[in-house]
Amino acid sequence: MVASVNESSTSSAIFAAGCFWGVEAEFRRADGVTATRVGYTGGHTEHPTYRQVCGKRTGHAEAVEVTFDPAQVSYEELLERFWACHDPTTRNRQGFDIGSQYRSAIFFASPAQEAAAVRSRDAQQAALEAEGGRGLLGRRRRIVTEITPANTFWPAEDYHQRYLEKRGRATCAVALRAPEPARRASTP
Fold this sequence. Notes:
Number of strands: 8
CATH topology: Peptide Methionine Sulfoxide Reductase, Chain A
Order of helices and strands: EHEHEHEEEHEEH
Number of helices: 5
Radius of gyration: 18 Å
Largest sheet: 6 strands, mixed
Shape: globular
């Protein structure tokens, strides 16, 4: 639950994991997260708009800036939440959302965040490989998450902030179920 705390006792982290509405909602549920803000980062256009980012010419990713109290939640715990809330093995895509603006990325603010992100990614990849590391059609699954220095974070338009919360929704994810195997009709 997001609560107010003294600003000087907080740190921030920036994550991109697909559509920012669901990612924001996921981080807002974490104890120790004091604020979230959705926006755009990782590109070259100043003051981008949602329409521009969706036009795929800004280079920006939809991202969430997470402000947190390190005494209540560690950066490493936020990384665990990041890995759990999306598929880091799909390049420029999460579910039905396709495009580089939906890429998986960690934008680090310090050498310590960079080192933690790399360790976490490597541990996630090792766990994936220990589980067989294979996806559909038996292809090897590799984590494609970018780990890159944070640059300017451009807040998204007001109507995107806490979008799901304003609409009484907990998530925007669509759960897809694998098709059941075809059944042979029984013959009398």
